[in-house]
Design goal:
It is built from twelve helices and eight strands. By secondary structure, it is α/β, with parallel strands linked by helices. It has two domains: about 35 residues, no CATH class; about 250 residues, HUPs (Rossmann fold). Strands 3-2-1-4-6-5 form a six-stranded mixed beta sheet, with helices on both faces. It has a two-stranded antiparallel sheet with strand order 7-8. Strand 2, helix 3 and strand 3 form a beta-alpha-beta unit. The radius of gyration is 19 Å and the shape is globular. Bound molecules: zinc ion (ZN) (2 copies). The site of one zinc ion has 7 residues, from loops. One zinc ion (ZN) binds next to loops.
């Protein structure tokens, strides 16, 4: 199918390369405007991993003229992780974006794989991905206190998967915590400017920009439940091209602006958003002490 705008060879999403880049940037700007994600004077922390989604987000917000800084939390060493940090430094240096690096090991005394082992010794079985996600999220929140918003690289794929997972688990609490912006008393609002962008599109944008990113997933990314949903949705969308878009729009029209976008509680130990009295990160930290 040729580009819908100029008839040149298609690069991605029905556009040639240059019209795709234009479409992509317009869509991110539209998302920021539509959901009032960022104010002109806001200090924006971008939670970056060195993967394609967060790298594209960091670059774009900087390009749009927002006051942006990258925050990255390293959960463990190893080839994949070291390479991510190296790539991030290169992108930030090239575009003059400040980057701050934090290490789980430095702050908690142990790396995430070590913590997983310590928990296992106490009979608590935790998936590496869940553990990593919980601890990194809390560290980012903690270090983002001086900012007005924290932006994350969640895409339409992530959001459609998360919504379906909540439906399949009948998790009505979690479902209200989704959406392109969540805010609550005592924590820095979290925003998702790539909410209406597909992962295939961030990959195409990143490739066109020549960003040094690893397109393979983290080798520890073995959360089987999530992987099942990703595989199922990708397969489904091949036959029904608008599926992800429809799921996200269903969410926006039925949940967003009603109860969605609020975190109901704050952890009594660390003050970060939490589903219960104590957040998951503090529960884990309590167990390894
Ligand atoms: Zn074109
Ligand atoms: Zn806590």
């Amino acid at each position: 199918m040729p580009c819908t705008k100029c008839g040149k060879k298609e690069y991605c999403s029905g556009f040639c390369k240059s019209h795709f880049m234009e479409y992509f940037e317009k869509k991110v700007r539209y998302t920021i405007r539509r959901f009032s994600l960022i104010g002109k004077k806001d200090k924006v922390a971008v939670a970056v991993s060195g993967g394609k989604d967060s790298t594209v987000l960091l670059y774009l917000l900087h390009k749009f003229g927002y006051g942006v800084e990258g925050i990255t939390v390293t959960a463990f060493g190893g080839k994949h992780s070291d390479k991510n940090v190296e790539n991030l430094r290169a992108v930030c240096e090239k575009h003059g974006i400040p980057l701050t690096e934090y290490l789980v090991k430095e702050e908690l005394g142990h790396s995430v794989p070590e913590i997983k082992k310590m928990l296992a010794a106490k009979g608590v079985d935790q998936q590496m991905c869940a553990l990593c996600g919980v601890l990194r999220r809390q560290m980012i929140n903690r270090h983002a206190k001086a900012f007005d918003v924290v932006a994350t690289g969640h895409t339409m794929d992530d959001e459609a998967q998360a919504f379906l997972m909540n439906v399949f688990r009948n998790d009505t609490k979690q479902v209200y915590r989704g959406g392109p912006r969540s805010s609550g008393k005592g924590f820095v609002p979290r925003i998702k400017p790539l909410y209406l962008i597909k992962e295939s599109e961030t990959a195409a944008y990143s490739r066109a920009m020549g960003f040094p990113v690893q397109y393979s997933r983290c080798p520890y990314s073995i959360d089987a439940y999530r992987r099942n949903f990703r595989g199922f949705l990708d397969e489904f969308e091949k036959k029904h091209p608008n599926a992800k878009n429809n799921i996200v729009n269903f969410y926006l029209s039925e949940f967003w602006g009603k109860k969605a976008g609020t975190a109901p509680k704050v952890c009594k130990a660390c003050g970060e958003p939490s589903s219960g009295e104590t957040c998951k990160a503090c529960q884990i930290i309590g167990r390894i002490k």
